[in-house]
Amino acid sequence: MTGTADSARKASNDRQFTFSWGHTALEAEFTTAADGTLRLVRLARPGEPSSPVGPESTLPLLELTALGHGSGWSGPRFTGTAFGSRLRYRDHLSGSRADREWLTVELHDPETGLTAFVELTSPTGLPVLRSRVRLRNDGTRPLVVQSVSSLLLGGLPSPDALDVYRARNDWLAECRWYAEPLRDTVADINVGAHQHDSRAALVLTGRGSWPTDGHLAMGAVTERGGGRTWLWQVESPAGWRWDLGERAHGTYLALNGPTDAEHQWRVRLAPGAEFTTVPGVVALGSGFDDAMGALTSYRRAVRRPHPDHEGLPVVFNDYMNTLMGDPTTEKLLPLIDAAAAAGAEYFCIDSGWYDDDTEGWWDSVGEWLPSPRRFPGGGLRAVLDRIRERGMVPGLWLEPEVVGVRSPVASALPPEAFFRRDGVRLAEQGRHQLDLRHPAARAHLDKTVDRIVGDWGVGYLKLDYNIVVDPGTCTDGDIAPGAGLLGHAQAYLDWLSELLDRHPGLVVENCASGGMRMDGATLAVAQLQSTSDQQDPLRYPAIAAAAPTAVPPEQGAVWAYPQPAFDDDLITFTLGGALLGRIHLSGHLDRMSEHQLGLVRDAVGAYRAIRGDLGKAVPFWPLGLPGWTDEWLALGMRVPGGPSYVSVWRRGGEPELHLPMEGLGKDVRAEILHPSAPVAGSAAWDGDGLRVSLPRTPGVLLVRLVPGA
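Below the sequence we write its predicted structure tokens.
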């Protein structure tokens, strides 16, 4: 079925049946197994061969555990559950809406009365599947759910044939991908000798209120030799888990939101109550780059529309390696003038603008009122006026979810407006955490932002978050802290959406000490994503080159902080790292010579010349995914029907390198866009790739490749 509603009810308890669903870029086939459960037995791009597996080698469409209804066998996996073997197919509906296809499959457990709706969607023309599950208790007794899968995919090639990719994501060291054979983790136990699958699984989890602290909520497997790739993300603003394991000589993938075992997450479903999981997403491709291109296009298709994604204005932020949280009128005015002269279009005043406390502001924040001490005379509003006078949009940093323990807001709001456990208000690093499910917490933030945006005319908010709460909060409506955390995180995104509804021109940057909240759920609402707090310009390129794995280039904010003490090579190096992302300019531009400021203007000009292409481009990596200590790094952007762009960094090694690139043809014009100095390096197309020379380190080139020129 493609695009037509199918409301025919099928009685499936007594007979096997098969049905198909999909569109021009994705084919899915479902079949009932001998035990009566429905299985997804094929998920592929058109023309790809079917896996030589039957329904018994795949997984039920849904697995879940609940108190009194656990697993069917021991082990760390959430497969083989009692519910998974009992849920029976009842119905399915499919159709089209806007630019996507949808399918909802209804399953039912006659023993408890639980009904599950597996909701599948796919953007038309993309080989990407998104799945979430809605549970409804149609029984007569409460049910306490401990885990529920968002997406299950079985029948993948054997672990012997797969390499698995993960991305470490630490503060100041984000997006560090690494690969290994899946068989190194899921050992071959000789299934034939034991007549039983291995209980081993490769399990990755994200915990706490920083969902991407430790690893990105992503992963991939690539078929060794064949190249087929399955790339996934869990769209959770709180906890998540994914598993890879062996089943019937093949591999399965299970995507989950938070669970009881790892996140202290449980929900009680009273009769008639519902719960919906976070989404899980799988993108298919002929290789990692191809699958990442599909996932990038999917991320654009599902995010909140906003003019910022089209315009990509240049943002100057006064924090990184510059004012570092110490803004004053005296320091800001010359910096504002210099940023405007360099070509910035937004100017964001970062942390410290509210700090009027001689004891330090960390544990006193929450009122978000400007400091008279820092902004004498006309106050902060005079500085905001200066930004507008120089032709830029003013912005401010805000950490909305926290209230310092010394803040008047801590006693003004009711205790129920904060995270609590066992009746005790939580405190982390001298701060309390607001619970955005409570109307008083929400009203406090609405009043704050409406004052800043509506009254002061601020058009850009950098929303930061610098504490970690793990496992969460327990209010009167929660039975486990992980459920409270997920409820708050989803309420925060609802609040952010309503804020953007009220102020549609506002641009919001998502930040959590850099990239500790770089999850798909948040990226679908915010316009920009901070990629790191890394202050070393020589270490940032590894982050910048890998950031498009986590965020589309037009949303990925990359710092560019040239300094007057830098030589020309280092100035162009730190500027060049941001040109295939979202340039976030900083640095003491007001202290630069006219020559140095000219280098900054040239880089900003190069960015402005190509930014219209970045919102359509998909990433690729001519040298493979970047390593943290690689001497040469490369990131490419391919524009459908247009040119390609490649950024190349040299941090050491030989002065020349060949970058293999397929699909561009033999005749390609290579044009260096940055740096503007002709002696910086060279780039030439040699028929099957780009030969680059960078005689000095550190060195960088941004090259445009035009096929057929």
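Residues 481-502 form the longest helix (22 residues).
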